[in-house]
Amino acid sequence: MSLHDLLAAQIAANGPIRLSDFMADCLLHPEFGYYTTQEPFGASGDFVTAPEVSQMFGELIGLSLAQAWIDQGSPSPFALVEFGPGRGTLMSDILRATKGVSGFHQAAQIILLEASPNLRAIQGETLRVYTPAWIDAVDQLPAIPIFAVANEFFDALPIRQFVRDGSGWRERQVGLDNDTLVFGLGPDSPQPALAHRLEDTKDGDLVEECSAASPIINTLGLRIKHHGGVALIIDYGDWRSLGDTLQAIRDHEHVSPLDQAGQCDITAHVDFETIANAVPCQYSRVTPQGVFLERLGITQRAQALAQNMTEDALHSHIAAHRRLTHPDEMGNLFKVIGLYPEGGSPPAGLEK
Ligand code: SAH
Q: Whole domain around residue 171: which residue ranges?
């Protein structure tokens, strides 16, 4: 039995399924899901995320969070939170970089939101000395100040896709042709949630909707509004997306999202307009990752680290700096938005 066989049987019996249901099963099916069964990150895995590119990423995020904590009067206790921590590399770099911040570690309760038991075990190993706690859902966050980061978490939330047909929409579905999974379109139906997209689309255009993102942002933002803290949301995407951004990656190559269900990473661009509209506290300007990291001093940090490097290590260090910041690499595709309380300031690296 494979996820493909399971889905094919389900579709044969009950008809085509939503893309969001397909994506949710591919990533987090308890037995066959990609995050549930594989260790996808790093050079030996399927793709490389920013914290896996260089320790500088997590160090600078750590300093931005610690600065915000100091600016808000060093509250104790507070929750140091990561959404979707992967291998735990980002949190580990945050904690190493903030070791010298007086009182920060003592006041921090480290909380990880992670759905995959497999990845929880790896995170537990990476962060062994810090005794983190795990939660299943954002509403389990304690009612204390929250200093949070999410890197490439929202891009893994299931999306739906709709193709415009007159003033209605036809939903893109996953169906079956013989034994092969194929995309098709459902019947024309009104979509009140897409009313604003009638302004900027024409017949045949495809738009995406991620209904899971807003409630998460809303709950997180309410904690920050009522108890203080900040959140840094980092992901690839833009203010509003148009067209099909679904992508599947295996072994560092693009593959078809319908092939190899559960064997490849499936993500979509994050719509920062949806995120911003769901924020119940203050939010910063959406800022390119390269700009954000430069403002936090990545070049100075890169130069300091380079002092002790030669040859291959130096080459890959220079390439990592470029990869994180250059507009042709991750610098422009990835964006950052910060959440902060009324009357407060955006986290360092971001502007109102
Ligand atoms: N932040 C890490 C990993 C990004 S991959 C990095 O930058 O390297 C996405 C992460 O989010 C994985 O840890 C995955 O298991 C987790 N994840 C995806 N969907 C989730 C959900 N609905 N609830 C909780 N965790 C989820």
A: 3-32+160-208
